[in-house]
Amino acid sequence: MRVYQPAAVLFLHAFPLNKNMYKYQFEAFEKEGIPYIAVDYPGFGEERNFPTDYSISQLTDIIVSKINQLGIKKIIPIGDSMGGYIMFDLWRRYKDLISALVFVATRAEADTEEAKKARYITIEKIKKEGKDFLIEFMIDAQTSPKTKEDTKKIEELLCIMNEATEEGIIKALKALAERPDNTELLKTINVPTLVIAGKDDEKVTPPSVVKQIADGIENSLFIEIPDSAHLPPFENPEEFNKVVIPFIKENL
Question: What is the CATH number of the domain that holds 176?
Answer without folding.
Answer: 3.40.50.1820
